[in-house]
Specification:
alpha+beta, 2 domains, 36% helix, 6 helices, 5-stranded antiparallel beta sheet, elongated
Length: 213
């Protein structure tokens, strides 16, 4: 029986449509792969969440530092991620960085297993991660401290402020006031001077090495 030319034409058009769509997907992935890490991160808000982890001690009063790792799956299958070190006592978002284009294996070996070397992490609801980061920035801003400059980039790993619910009761400071614990890279003299100006003498505590002030 001779084949129906209309059915043949319809099947041919369907095949070509699939080939065109596959070609477009491949072209899109190739174009995406050519982007720089920063360009990928700036688009990260549209990527699905891969995982999120937080320091297992985040609910405890000590040590006052909370680390958050948030990763998203790129359209090409690779992983991009952001890391956020929050100082709940005083400085807010003390350090942050992000990267992109990591294979799953590389991400697991070089990032996820290295970020929490001493404290066992917990799976972190995305709402908690956002609230912890944004609220810490707000707390530190009261005393004139800004988030780490790289937040200008790593903010794009997060949803915009106010987009997610904030159901957690988070507290910052220690005993109701800022408590600055000087780290090896902190300009202790400058920070203490800032606290004297904004919080006022007697309204904050600090710990610093001898000779640091």
């Amino acid at each position: 029986m001779p084949r129906d030319p209309r059915k043949h034409q319809k099947a041919l058009m369907k095949k070509r449509s699939k080939q065109k769509a596959a070609g477009q997907r491949k072209s899109h992935q190739q174009a995406f792969t050519s982007l720089s890490s920063q360009a990928i991160i700036r688009r990260a808000r549209t990527f699905p969440l891969f995982e999120c982890w937080i320091s297992g001690t985040w609910q405890q009063d000590e040590p006052g530092l909370v680390e958050i790792l948030l990763a998203r799956r790129q359209p090409d299958g690779d992983i991009c991620y952001g890391v956020y070190l929050v100082d709940k006592y005083c400085l807010g978002l003390k350090n942050t960085f992000a990267n992109a284009g990591f294979s799953l294996t590389r991400y697991q070996n070089e990032v996820r297993d290295m970020i929490f070397p001493e404290i066992e992490p917990l799976e972190c609801p995305i709402e908690l991660a956002h609230q912890m980061i944004y609220a810490s920035i707000d707390y530190a801003a009261q005393f004139g401290f800004q988030p780490d400059k790289d937040f200008a980039l790593t903010q794009f790993m997060l949803a915009p402020r106010g987009e997610l619910e904030e159901p957690y009761q988070l507290t910052f400071g220690k005993d109701g006031k800022p408590f600055f614990v000087a780290g090896p890279r902190d300009n202790a003299a400058r920070i203490v001077k800032q606290l004297e100006k904004t919080a006022g003498p007697g309204n904050f505590d600090y710990v610093a090495m001898l000779g640091a002030l």
